Amino acid sequence: MHPARSIVFFTTASGAGFALLMLLGLGVPLGLLPDSGGFAFAALAAAIALAAAGLGSSVLHLGRPERAWRAFSQWRSSWLSREGVFAVLTFVPTAVFGIGWVFFGASGGLVGLFGVIAAALAAVTVYCTGMIYASLKPIHQWHNAWVVPGYLALGSMSGLLILDFLIRFWVVRATGLAIFTAAVTLIAWWIKERYWLFIDTSSAPSTVASATALGRRGRVRSFETPHTQDNYLLNEMGFQIGRRHARGLRRIARLSGFLLPALGSVVTAIVAGAPGAVIAGLAVVSAAFGLLIERWLFFAEAKHTVTLYYGADAV
Amino acid sequence: MSSRDYVAFGSGRLEARGFLDRLRAYFSPSEDVDTSPKVADEVKYTTCYMCACRCGIKVHLKDGGIRYIEGNRDHPVNRGVICGKGASGIMQQHSPAKLKKPLRRVGERGAGEFREIEWDEAIATAVDWLSPIRATDPKKLAFFTGRDQSQSLTGYWAAQFGTPNFAAHGGFCSVNMAAAGMYTLGGSFWEFGEPDWERTRYLMMFGVAEDHDSNPIKIGLSGLRRRGAKFVSVNPVRTGYSAIADEWVGVRPGTDGLLVLALIHELFVADWIDLDYLARYTNAAWLVIQAPGAADDGLFARDEAGNPLVLEASGTLASATTVGVATRFVGEAELPDGRRAVPVFQLIAERYLDDRYAPEAVAEACGIPAATIRRLAAEIAEVAFKEEIELPVAWTDWAGRQHQTMRGRPVSFHAMRGISAHSNGFQTCRALHLLQILLGTIDVPGGWRYKSPHPKPAPPGPKPAGKPDQVVAGKPLPGIPLGYPMSPEDLIIDAEGRPARIDKAFSWDAPIAAHGMMHMVIANAANGDPYPIDTLFMYMANMAWNSAMNTAETMRMLTDKDPTSGEYRIPRIIYADAYYSETVAYADLVLPDTTYLERWDCISLLDRPIGGADGPADAIRQPIVEPDRDVRPFQDVLIEIGARLELPGFITPEGEPRYPGGYPDYIINHERRPGVGPLAGWRGLDGDQPGRGAPNPHQLERYIANGCFWKHPLPDDQLYFKHANKAYLETAVTMGLIDRAEPIVLQLYVEPLQRFRLAAQGHGAVQPPAAHRERIAAYFDPLPFWYMPFEEARIDREAFPLHAVTQRPMQMYHSWHSQNAWLRQILGFNRLFVNRTTGRALGLETDDWVWVTSHHGRIRVPIRLMDGVNRNTVWTWNAIGKRAGAWNLAPDSPEFRKGFLLNHLISELLPSDGGYHYSNADPITGQAAWYDLRVRIERVAPGERDQTAPSFGVIGHPGSLARPPGILRYFAGRDRLDRQGSSRRGSSA
Amino acid sequence: MTSLPASRPGQKKFGLVIDLDICVGCHACATACKEWNASGHMGPLTDFSPYGDDAWGVWFNRIHSFEEGEGDGARTIHFPKSCLHCEEPACVTVCPTGASYKRAEDGIVLVNEAICIGCKLCSWACPYGAREFDADQGVMKKCTLCIDRIYNEHLAEADRQPACVMVCPVNARHFGDLGDPESPVSALVAERRGRDLMPELGYRPVNKYLPPRPGRMPRTPPPDAVQPAAPAGSSGDKLLRWLDRLLSR
Ligand SMILES: Nc1nc2c(c(=O)[nH]1)N[C@H]1C(S)=C(S)[C@@H](COP(=O)(O)OP(=O)(O)OC[C@H]3O[C@@H](n4cnc5c(=O)[nH]c(N)nc54)[C@H](O)[C@@H]3O)O[C@H]1N2
Ligand SMILES: Nc1nc2c(c(=O)[nH]1)N[C@H]1C(S)=C(S)[C@@H](COP(=O)(O)OP(=O)(O)OC[C@H]3O[C@@H](n4cnc5c(=O)[nH]c(N)nc54)[C@H](O)[C@@H]3O)O[C@H]1N2
Ligand code: SF4
Ligand code: SF4
Ligand code: SF4
Ligand code: SF4
Ligand code: SF4
Ligand SMILES: [Mo]
Fold first, then answer.
1. What's the gap in Å between B422 CA and the centre of ligand 8?
2. Average pLDDT in the B680-705 region?
3. Where are the beta strands (DSSP E) in B242-295?
4. What part of C 209-248 touches A (C-beta under 8 Å)?
5. In what order do the strands lie in the sheet with B65-71?
6. Does the distance separating the beta carbons of A226 and B826 come in below 8 Å?
7. In this complex, do B374 and C39 lie within 8 Å of one another by their Cβ atoms?
8. Are B759 and B768 within 8 A, CB to CB?
């Protein structure tokens, strides 16, 4: 699948944003977060900005962005519509929660309740995002059990890393959060590794033979494609990445997306103050970079059944 | 309210509706599809010309644009279907490569720099150039036309001008096919005949990718497969028609002659020959003089009246024309002068029973196991002789004998350029006709059938005009410059035996070059060999590119100057094209033509009509849309130039233009012979005379009313045995198709060939110069034989181990369609296809780039591996590669970067053997031997560019060409075509 | 609406049956489709860089070719492909706007261009590559099964067929109601064992493909016609057979 920059950015950013929102919505009523208007503002702003930027970028990806409002109508069947609906819905309790928390310093009661609701909706939103991909049968690398957990875990991990960074401007030491962050990061990494293992060791049930209903005489191979130049289908779904190239990028994603942030979190569990903040900041940057690559790979390594008609033997 | 405007929510239109309705519409939107939109404001019929197949089309016009083009269901050729090209006609009409105005060259030839001129100036220039030529030496005009469908006009014009130097594309196309058939049967494959699609039970097809009858062939094959008839395709490549064959015989190119003769051998061995058919309809029993060294050795023994003789049962001689005479097929006759003569049949049986034609003997050369050849022969015989069919239709033969039924052997053959585009093609085509005749399947139910206006006498009467004494300043030729020589006396040569035509057709180089040798014109003219010319006038031929052999050299010759005078060696070039093809850049004067939807045309019985086996038919094209630029139909222009030059056929006795109404005027009023004109339908003042009759002023209206074609269905008793069917022959005479209602005797043994051979052996008044003798004697064999194609025979076969051929892609016509926005998406460049095993052995993989080298040159191309191709053969699609700058395509187009021509590898001359430099052609007909090419392939050096080579500089183009749109939003009648940028409909969101 | 219409008994299922046995790969159905539809219900079928490098455009029907088997036994197969008008089309259910829908009355899958937002998700959900994005108009387009022909009262009865079916010179394309077991198309599918493409994905395509028939090679029944009748020996000896044959013209 073609790794469109807008979508790579969208899924990564909004995943982080909604996860952060979820953490805030849960953390605040539970009193786990600093009681500071400044922190409240910064954290919420970051969450909303990321979520909104992601959504905005996905809207710009549309052929007809001015009609985006139509996308909320088919929640009965469409995960994309559901995602849209939940994304927007999330902002309603978030608004109440945010105003209560940022401007009135409230963290419990109604504000807290709205926080929890926002957190739940944010989680559902990320789930929906995962399901958009996981529900697509033509794409074996998406239509599997590792995709939704991956989205949830990667989102949570990035939300936590951001939180761990932001919190350091208000508290000197956040050992628990840091350790939790490191743990979630490692879990996310494990899920991603399982995902990679899965896609490396399995392929879709569909083959060029099943795609053409041929094969009784023997192997089926593409002889000529319908058009000599690439068309929409190939540009959108025929993206190919070399095995070596993919391996290299996975290594970068492992290092930058998981290993360094996990290490950073472990270190910030020990190192306090400004150095801790710097390290946490670096962990965020590293994770962002790594996750963008991971997400790019998520698209680039995904093979669509349509390529079976254009020379692929298996997907 | 259109469906598109129906928007559920947020549209002002729906304000009146209730909120709930709107909500419902938001969550459950529905679309109100207009399932019955108006299709057309007007439907006009005409004839397609996205290729030369001449299908009937219906053009739907809507809102001033072309809505849709579809096949005409009533049309005899295509019966409602059209092909991929035909359905892309809209994009031809909207091509940005359309020429817009007459042009005069200003820069150097080939640079593409022009000045736009008015038509007055254009025509005056042409007249100024041509008039002195005609007044002094008409042969200094060479007039050659390519995809010309008005050859009866252009040929007539040339004859009226007085130049022998006229021909159309036949010489580089399939004259082997045409000539072999015409001399044998008075008909041929190509568009002169077709299998009996409805009745045949076994079809064997040789070397056909598409042909000129592509829709009929497709319709026919489909029916055949459905009926369970067997279809065998003999072709080195398995695509297209071959892909759906029951059996694919992947023959090695150039060896079909051997394969066919082996089949004949098998039939003789097993005695599966239709002797009755041979006796009745062929010259099998005619006696051939056996007097080696005599001037008439190998000619037919004739009586005083000139009738061939046969050997009666009693041992006496009788005229072959005697009705009912019982003759011997084998046995020796003594002629009155005491010499020996034997029947043709005996010569044939002796020759093909020889073991050198046994399947085992040919298997290796052909690349087909002997057992397969045996089985194919057995299958053919089985169907021919065990599955004979009989139609309950009574008919009368030429001698007036009644037959209660029509019997047929339902085996048929079809063949095209795969066998004809070789230097042994004439004899190979002859071999195939021989096979058909021996099986008795010519024009019988289930066999191969003549398409009207055939059969003609074998060969037809007219001989080429243009002998040196017939070329007289200011005078027309006494006939048309193309025809069928019967003996050396008919050649167009000078007293010393040197060629008298610029293309050397009808010379000792190629005595039976019945269609001319267009592929030699530029080279010969540039070399002043046999003489320099003054003006080269071309029409609809892309001679600077895909119809040239040795393309690079051809371009050089077009621009070559005489160093002493500084003048171009070909002083003037006039060219009429409709589009900015590669050749336009080489013209000094460009006459821009209309598109096929903008003009009158006539698909005439005098030329290449649309007739089928069921009867004669012809057709017209009528203007469907108005030209939007300053172009004129070429035929109008030619007629006007003719009148201005005062060519007798184009002026009245008073000196006024004879056809002031241009081509339509000519179509209606021109008479070639009394009562015979370009169109055969609705002749006579009242339009009630088919075939022959006075001009009918309302003829074109009658055509239009009938869907732009005319058809004369033959009655059942005339549908078969046309060559010997009394009723048919008489009809054909009345309609002006043939001159005499005499039977057409199928020529197993072609006597005219022997006449040439005798000349080479030193007999007769006209003999070849010494250098040509051996060759003429060798190849003018009156019975078919096989010889190795010349290129293969002369090169180092190990150094060039592979054959290289091209195929017609079904969706492209030669060079025409790279300018077509839709078709070029399908085939924007071509690859060289290599057999997988062969490729792997060379370490090659799909998408590799290779150098392809022939004895003549090399090209760099991308490849693809496939299984369905003979192991010794590589192939590609024809004419996809283009020259950068031509056709108004962007200079980075794939046609230039990755597309290529094999033509660069093909020399117009044979590899030298030290002797005379013959053209790379068949020695009998001069047919260009495109498919004799041999090559080797090697992977390019690492790091070499992925770009085809050779590539030539970008040619400039006239500023007047349309600016090609970046985005094409064709919608009939909506002016979207040339708008740039986005056209999003903002209305509905 | 993107929820699928409930399938009623006797549900009409309009679709195409494509005969791989006789398709010669001529592309007529592809360009006829392009031509009809360019000015049709979903027109224009925009083309990009039409006279430049990398020309591409919106096509509803494309002709692939494959080789099946290896070596000399390989067969070339031309393979046209357009929307299969699936019974379980995820291209419809994934659509967030309701622009993609399956018609209850005949099962035709369409895109309502007026409300499509161009998110492209339906094209990802279609396993067969039957959805075509018009980047100029920003909306998805696709084969309409020639909905503006098959019911069109301005056309003669015989012409109420998809453009691609009308044009096919070998009659390899058939249009009809595959929901009706009695229909000619259903009969054809039954007789020739029409196949689904990628049945494993569960989209249940309506369009069916008729597999290539084995070639009659050698022809059956095996020929027994040719028994060598010639005696061994020189060709002169062989000629003796015909010595006494008398044949009259
Ligand atoms: N390698 C290789 N070369 C081949 C062949 C092959 O098989 N392999 N085939 C050979 C054969 S059989 C043939 S017939 C030749 C064909 O060769 P040509 O006849 O030279 O080639 P075309 O590409 O048909 O181009 C004819 C010209 O007609 C112009 N034209 C198109 N429509 C019109 C019109 O309406 N009016 C006018 N005035 N001009 C128009 C086109 O723009 C083009 O320039 O190629 C030969 N060359
Ligand atoms: N779509 C389309 N139709 C066309 C044309 C076009 O350009 N496009 N051109 C028209 C013209 S001008 C012509 S002349 C006709 C030509 O019509 P065809 O003769 O059908 O055209 P070619 O493409 O030359 O086909 C030659 C076939 O012979 C095979 N072949 C090559 N060498 C040999 C051999 O030695 N033995 C055998 N048995 N087969 C061999 C090739 O693989 C190829 O399949 O088509 C006409 N129709
Ligand atoms: S074969 Fe195609 S392009 Fe040629 S005349 Fe017929 S419809 Fe037109
Ligand atoms: S083929 Fe594709 S576009 Fe057509 S209905 Fe099936 S899934 Fe949808
Ligand atoms: S591109 Fe249009 S039709 Fe396709 S899913 Fe998106 S909104 Fe629906
Ligand atoms: S049914 Fe109509 S829209 Fe669909 S492929 Fe055929 S011609 Fe195109
Ligand atoms: S029109 Fe018919 S033969 Fe041609 S590609 Fe389409 S289905 Fe095949
Ligand atoms: Mo040709």
1. 14
2. 96
3. 247-249, 287-290
4. 209, 211-212
5. B42-47, B56-62, B65-71
6. yes
7. no
8. yes
Test C69 with A219 for CB contact under 8 angstroms.
yes
3-state helix, strand, coil in chain B (%, to 5): 30, 20, 50
ipTM of the complex, rounded to two decimals: 0.95
Segment B122-134 mean pLDDT: 98
Q: How confident is the model at residue B182 (pLDDT cuts 50, 70, 90)?
A: very high
Partner-chain residue, chosen from B9, B866, B894, that has the shortest CB–CB distance to A223? B866
**Cβ-nearest to A229 among B828, B866, B989:** B828
Helix runs in B560-598, H state only: none
* Chain B: closest CA distance from residue A74 (Å): 6
What CATH topology corresponds to C14-210? Alpha-Beta Plaits (3.30.70)
List pLDDT tens digits, range B412-448. Answer: 999 999 999 999 999 999 999 999 999 999 999 999 9
Query: Cβ distance B139 to B471 under 8 Å?
Result: yes
Model confidence at B60: pLDDT above 50: yes
- Tell me the C-alpha to C-alpha distance, in Å, between residue B100 and each of A180, B97, B127, B889, B956: 76, 9, 21, 16, 15
Contact (CB, 8 A) for B805 and B236: yes
Sign of the Cα torsion B634, B635, B636, B642 reads positive
A 10 A CB-CB count for C243 gives: 11
Half-sphere exposure for B627 (CA within 13 Å, toward CB): 19
- Comparing alpha-carbon positions, the chain B residue that sits nearest to C138 is B984
Ligand 2 atom index nearest CA of B53: 47
- Predicted pLDDT at B133: 98
Predicted confidence (pLDDT) per residue in B299-333, tens digit = 999 999 999 999 998 889 999 988 888 899 999 99
End-to-end C-alpha distance for chain A, whole angstroms: 11
CB of C147 within 6 A of ligand 6: the answer is: no
Q: Could you give the CA distance from residue C48 to residue C36 in angstroms, rounded to a whole number?
A: 19
Matching residue, tokens 């085996």: B411
pLDDT in tens, B473-491: 999 999 999 999 999 999 9
The vertex-B498 CA angle with B496 and B501, nearest 5°, equals 135
At B252, list the tokens: 């090695």
Which residue carries 């091509």 as its tokens?
A: B95
Mean pLDDT of C104-111: 96
Using alpha carbons, list the distances in angstroms from residue A255 to A160, A188, B373, B554: 18, 13, 67, 62
Per domain, the residue ranges of chain C are: 14-210
Q: Does B868 touch chain C (CB under 8 A)?
A: yes
